[in-house]
From TrEMBL:
Transmembrane residue ranges: 6-24, 393-412, 456-479, 532-557
Alphabetically ordered keywords of this record: Cell membrane, Chaperone, Membrane, Protein transport, Transmembrane, Transmembrane helix, Transport
Organism for this UniProt entry: Acinetobacter gandensis
Domain of life: Bacteria
Coiled coil: none
GO biological process terms, semicolon-separated: protein insertion into membrane; protein transport
Boundaries of every Membrane insertase YidC N-terminal domain copy: 85-380
GO MF entries: membrane insertase activity
Segments of this protein annotated with the region Disordered: 53-77
Subcellular location: Cell inner membrane; Cell membrane
Subunit structure: Interacts with the Sec translocase complex via SecD. Specifically interacts with transmembrane segments of nascent integral membrane proteins during membrane integration.
Similarity-based family: Belongs to the OXA1/ALB3/YidC family. Type 1 subfamily.
GO cellular-component term (any): plasma membrane
The protein's name: Membrane protein insertase YidC
Length: 587
């Protein structure tokens, strides 16, 4: 009974893990992609698809502004340089187009394209291969981005910035940081000046995009700020191909608000399940494996103090099948002779939970650990703690496994002790089986009496497997979703703990430890059970060939500690039984 239960649980673990991977691929992996649209080679202008007023043509793939009047200002700015603005910080290399002030390319300097390349990971780009850009501006009655003549052409001071141009700025928390400001200016013929400024903070990924409206005209100025992400249907460049599995997480849109912290929206559903929510403190994003781009609406400042605004969060498909998710602010009225400011924060980079949590409520949940997130979160915090001590994620996994085994030691010891007793009384059970032969009822009665006399629970050996299963699956998601472990080396040939072992050494070691562990268990008396029992390590070894090396490392250490623990308990129980047999008089 006990052996069949253990085999059933092992088989269930195998099947459930496989089904979870399939479900993960269905829900989070990349859906079949449509043929890539040919995007223009990087230039100073990206096709519009911007928010607009109700006067826009039917072909305009944009949400509507709050007013229906025609944009009235004219472009009095001289043509700007055709060059993109290059901004390089310690974390980013940005390219900004003077035409509209769109972010058309972002390279992450601290993250490689792949483990065999020193090229930086490209987050945003606009070229013949892929279109993924971040756009922002002012729309509405007087917004320059609503001009039927096209996006505003901003005047720029220079076309290249580095952190050497940064200045020390005192933040709200009293800390001083180096902030690089990249200003762009647009002037209208009637005296309105729009100053669009990108502010980069040293050591930080969030970028503040501020629009300052200086109304020197004789009339009221009215408009709205928008921010949006525009992406085609190309594959996720961050996914990894591992043997028979193509491991990837959710690729699509996401949004959140203080009431609904985290919601996913597949690209295919951008029209059918269109996002249309108004929220203060909300955010919109596009999520991919390990990385995220997001807009977080900020404040409107009409006087000295700024106030957070209720933004309208929206999603849609453009006429050329681009995926667009973004926000628009409420109408901003700037009386003649006054100044107003409106801003938002843009994030494009790794899914670092601490930074995302501080940026907006629920944005850190783009690090999606699935339905086992409470366990996964604890495991990740443990990994972070040990990594801080040893500076290597591989050793951190080993130390975390030891900690988990120590926590579960008292509970698992009871199970292993019961299994050890089963092992000791195995000869007695075999004798009873031979004695009672085909009388199964008598055999069952005598066996239950033996269990009671020896204080053995035949199902106790299943408990360690049941405890390991959720931890195993939660750690799988931690390794798949935590960017901190992306391309993280351990030692020798293991140079990426989030990828499979290229030489398959760890899976073979795992199979060996599983076999040794089974030899310490009571062996099935039934030949069929024994055969199934012997083949399980082979099945799991094949299965583990394509799992992340970090997960296989966890299983090896877990098995090794179990072998040590079970070996000690087996010897202890055998000694106790030997002493009891010596003290029992022979009839």
């Amino acid at each position: 009974m006990q052996q069949w239960a253990r085999i059933a649980i092992l088989g269930a673990m195998f099947v459930v893990a496989y089904l979870l991977i399939l479900a993960w691929q269905k829900d989070y992996g990349n859906a079949e992609q449509k043929p890539q649209q040919n995007a223009a080679v990087v230039s100073h202008e990206v096709s519009a698809d911007l928010p607009n007023g109700q006067t826009a043509t039917a072909a305009s793939d944009v949400p509507q502004a709050n007013n229906a009047a025609t944009q009235q200002t004219t472009d009095a700015t001289a043509p700007v340089s055709q060059q993109l603005i290059s901004v390089q910080t310690d974390l980013y290399h940005f390219w900004i187009s003077p035409k509209g002030g769109d972010i058309v390319r972002v390279e992450l300097l601290n993250h490689d394209k792949n483990k065999d390349s020193d090229e930086p990971f490209v987050m945003l780009e606009s070229d013949a291969k892929r279109t993924y850009v971040a756009q922002s501006g002012l729309i509405g009655l007087n917004g320059p981005d609503s001009n039927p003549k096209g996006r505003p052409s901003y005047e720029i001071e220079k076309s290249s910035y580095t952190m050497n141009d940064a200045k020390a700025v005192k933040a709200k928390d009293g800390q001083t940081a180096k902030v690089l400001s990249v200003p762009m200016v647009y002037k209208t013929a009637d005296g309105v000046e729009v100053i669009k400024t990108f502010s980069f903070t040293e050591g930080k990924y969030p970028v503040v995009v501020n629009h300052k409206i200086v109304n020197r005209s004789a009339q009221n100025w009215q408009g709205q700020m928008f921010g949006q992400l525009k992406r085609d249907n190309s594959e996720d460049p961050g996914k990894s191909d591992q043997g028979i599995f193509t491991l990837g997480t959710f690729l699509g849109g996401a949004w959140g608000s203080p009431d609904e912290h985290y919601n996913k929206l597949k690209f295919a559903n951008f029209n059918e399940e269109k996002l249309n929510v108004e929220a203060t403190g909300g955010w919109v994003a596009m999520v991919q494996h390990y990385f995220v781009s997001a807009w977080v609406p900020g404040e409107i400042k009409l006087t000295q103090n700024g106030q957070p605004y209720a933004a309208k969060l929206e999603s849609r498909k453009s006429t050329d099948d681009m995926n667009i998710i973004g926000f628009t602010s409420p109408a901003i009225n700037v009386p003649a002779g006054t100044v107003a400011e409106v801003d938002a924060t843009f994030y494009s980079g790794p899914k670092i939970q601490s930074e995302l949590k501080d940026l907006a409520v629920g944005l850190n949940q783009t690090v999606d650990y699935g339905w086992l997130w409470p366990i996964a979160k604890l495991l990740f915090l443990g990994l972070q703690f040990f990594h801080g001590l040893v500076g290597n994620w591989g050793w951190a996994i080993i130390l975390l496994t030891i900690l988990v085994k120590l926590i579960l030691w008292p509970l698992s010891s009871k199970s292993y002790r019961s299994m050890a007793k089963m092992r000791v009384i195995a000869p007695e059970m075999q004798r009873m089986k031979e004695e009672f032969g085909e009388d199964r009822m008598r055999f069952s009665q005598e066996m239950m009496a033996l269990y009671k006399r020896e204080q053995v629970n035949p199902l106790a050996g299943c408990l360690p497997l049941l405890l390991q299963m959720p931890i195993f699956l939660a750690l799988y998601w931690v390794l798949m979703e935590s960017v901190e472990l992306r391309h993280a080396p351990w030692l020798l040939w293991i140079q990426d703990l989030s990828a499979m072992d290229p030489w398959f050494i760890l899976p073979l070691l795992m199979g060996a430890t599983m076999f040794i562990q089974q030899m310490l268990n009571p062996q099935p008396a039934d030949p069929m059970q024994a055969k199934v029992f012997r083949i399980m390590p082979i099945i799991f070894t094949v299965f583990m060939l394509f799992f992340p090396a970090g997960l296989v490392l966890y299983w090896i250490v877990n098995n090794s500690i179990t072998i040590l623990q079970q070996g000690m308990i087996n010897k202890s129980v055998e000694k106790e039984r030997a002493k009891r047999d010596e003290a029992t008089p022979v009839n």
